[in-house]
Amino acid sequence: MNHSESVDCTVKPPVFLQIGDAKGDSARSGVCVVDDLATDINIEKITFKNYYTAYVTIRLLRRKAEKEGSAKWCTALRDLALMDNPHTEGGSQNYFSIHRRQMQVEPDHVESLRLILRQPSSAWRLFNLEEIRLFPHKEPAPEKEVSDWLSNLIVVKQPPDLEGLPDPQTVSSSIQQMWALTEVMQANRTTASIGRFDVDGCYDINLLSLT
Amino acid sequence: MEDGTDLSPSIAQIVQRLRGSHLHSQLERQAKDCLHRPEIKLESLKEDVRAFLKASGWEKRLQNAVYRELHVQLPQCHPTTPAEHLKEPLAYMRKAQASWEKRVLKSLNSMSTELGVPLARMRPAGEQKDLTNKWNEMGTDEPDLSRFRPVYAPKDFLEVLISLRNPNHDSSEDMTVKSHWGLIQVPLNVRDIPQLRQAYSELNLNNGQLGIDDHAHVHPDLFENSYVQIGKKVVVEQDSAAAQQYSRRGCPTGLRSDLWALTLNSTNQPQDVMHYEQLKAGVIQHDLLVDYLIYKDVKLTASNDDYYFVFEDFLYQVMLCFSRDTAVLEHFKYNSATPPKSYIHGKVGNEEFAVLYPPNGVIPFHGFSMYVAPLCFLYNEPSKLYSVFRMMYIRYFFRLHSISSSPSGIVALCLQFERLLQAHLPQLFYHLRQIGAQPLRIAFKWMVRAFSGYLSTDQLLLLWDRILGYDSLEVVAVLAAAVFAFRAENLMEVASLASAEAVLADLSTLKVMPLIQIFLFATAI
């Protein structure tokens, strides 16, 4: 899915939660909240790149379609494990996507998205999610109806009298066969390489490139 | 995380890779030829052709090919994942690998300029003819190799691994209860003994093993005879998955070459032989600087080894052709390493004249030929030997000399070795650490070569059976820890790194399977 399809949203900077007095507490927080503001979208999927977050919970602020002004928070996904083991590297920098089907509620008319990140291990200095993108849900396009004017086409004229020329039916069928062959060849394109390592028989090289 | 377990992208990927391959055209030809057969009816054409292909063994061959593809397939991941992430997900490891590669390339460049030997040179016609005549006895040729030195040795690589650090990892320098005593300071997930016991359950004390229960004093009817019968059946069935499962308890000597070829799905059909001949032509046509590195490596390692010196000529034939094989380049999709690039003379910067050097992208290091040497005991036909070696390299051996977070990668193996030792032999580890003999400094050279050249050949092949059977190099780390456990008493008495090395200098009398079995299943935890 190309990035141009994702919705622009403003991601607020992450807020790390502390118990008690926030300042002066030397212990690092294991919970972080990231708010993502969107304007009334239906979410198809959320993609992001992990950076050492162990678990993520997604909460949505949804507005009911009929009533204006009453928006409610609900939990779409609770404690999705991004890392197999919070203390070790597995999954720590992977790319993830969460589809609407994986969510417990329908992510429609979402005004705001809240990601609660947890990293219980003290092994890491920072944890966050990067490149958070929201993709809107598209309704499947309705069947296009055939326009009326198409049915008012001109009737095909009688084929002209051919003398000495080959029968157009056989010509067109053989051309169709050839066309079908080229389609088959194109579809059967192999990924195997030829195996040549030189350029036109020449392999005199300079020094190795260091960039 | 994709929604559900969607297999269609995997299937599409495998189909794409198999399409246009020789197997594909053979299947099509077989399907076409079988139309003449009386049992194929037009009404049930599809089912009849399928049944025919199944009965004649072609479906099995396709299954084996798919099984092979699954082994080298990239893990399923998010579609927006960039290619570099597929090679190696952790950014700091990619960076470390890139700077290590730069060092190696600089070293190769300076060797080329200092010695005045070009990186690649077209051989004149006379020299080409000479080499063709001498192809089977390249060992007798004694070029002047004194000026050449290996590009790097395993201990240089070890220093790089020791200096690997995750910038986001908070590792305080104090010795706390969770600190790691070893040299590798990267928090990869490695398995401990309880997890290994589950994963390697076939190596349990209750199961018969080749390497233990085929000893002279054990009556063959107790285990060996029936096990060999099963092995013969597996070879007749020609099933890759069964061969892999069978290898977990060892391969009988007489069946090993077939079983390994089956597990790796390495065939020796005419097109493989032709491919090998094409590579040979590449060797004859161009002379590469890496060829001298290969000569030097073989002379320094395999030729000096009591078991492998007889295969010197084979080693040249395989290694020189390996350097010319562009088919190896496909493994760089899942290897954290990148093949070195260069440009044709006078066309620097012009991408049309960009080439990779060497053609297979792999620069050999000191000891590289030891990956090939043990295989010479199994295969005497060069094209078959070559085919099996190439498969072993692109599945396993490449992980032993590139920096990656893979559980079979050398970083994870080193960490696993150290963790196993620290958890189960803490007194020994502490003692060795105090006398300045960090265990990894001794064990690293064994693991980088997967013990080739350190164990006796029959024991080494039993170890490599398990590597193939479990599709993982973990057993190498387990064996390294088991060796230390075995020699623990002697090691507790040494007072220096040199004497620790002396205690562990000779492993040729060790029996690997009892060591591994005792370490995994008889260690108190």
UniProtKB/TrEMBL annotation, chain A:
Tell me which domain of life the UniProt entry assigns to the organism this sequence originates from.
Eukaryota
**Name recorded for this polypeptide:** Nicolin 1
TrEMBL record, chain B:
InterPro entries found in the cross-reference section: Rab-GAP-TBC_dom, Rab-GAP_TBC_sf, TBC1D19
Pfam entry (one): RabGAP-TBC
Start and end residues of each Rab-GAP TBC domain: 250-471
According to UniProt, the name of this protein is TBC1 domain family, member 19
Instruction: Name the gene.
Output: TBC1D19
